[in-house]
Write a structure and sequence with these properties.
It is a single chain. By secondary structure, this protein is mainly α. It is built from five helices and no strands. The longest helix has 15 residues.
Length: about 100
């Protein structure tokens, strides 16, 4: 399992099942994104990740795997890609495109 799979596990209590309605899925992803984006910048910073992810090394690994444009932040699009990829890899693909 990738590091990203562990991140999804953090939200698994609430993020149990993707709906078959993509718009609902996207709204749910937006909700989680905003929870992590504690600074309200519209992007997740290293500081934001440290608030929800234990361990400095894990935060670094998540950024390395998720920050596709290497700007030091995770955009919503990068977050969505990471979450959907992880659900596909872990067999939780109900309704995932």
């Amino acid at each position: 399992m990738s590091v990203i799979g562990g991140v999804v596990d953090i939200f698994s209590q609430e993020f149990v099942t993707f709906s078959h309605d993509f718009s609902k899925d996207r709204n749910l992803l937006c909700t989680y994104f905003r929870r992590i984006d504690t600074e309200g910048q519209g992007k997740i910073s290293k500081k934001d990740l440290r608030m929800v992810i234990p361990g400095k090394q894990l935060v670094q690994e998540i950024l390395r795997e998720t920050d596709l444009n290497a700007d030091g932040f995770i955009s919503f699009e990068e977050f969505e890609t990471m979450m959907r990829r992880s659900f596909r890899e872990n067999g939780n693909n109900a309704g995932v495109a």
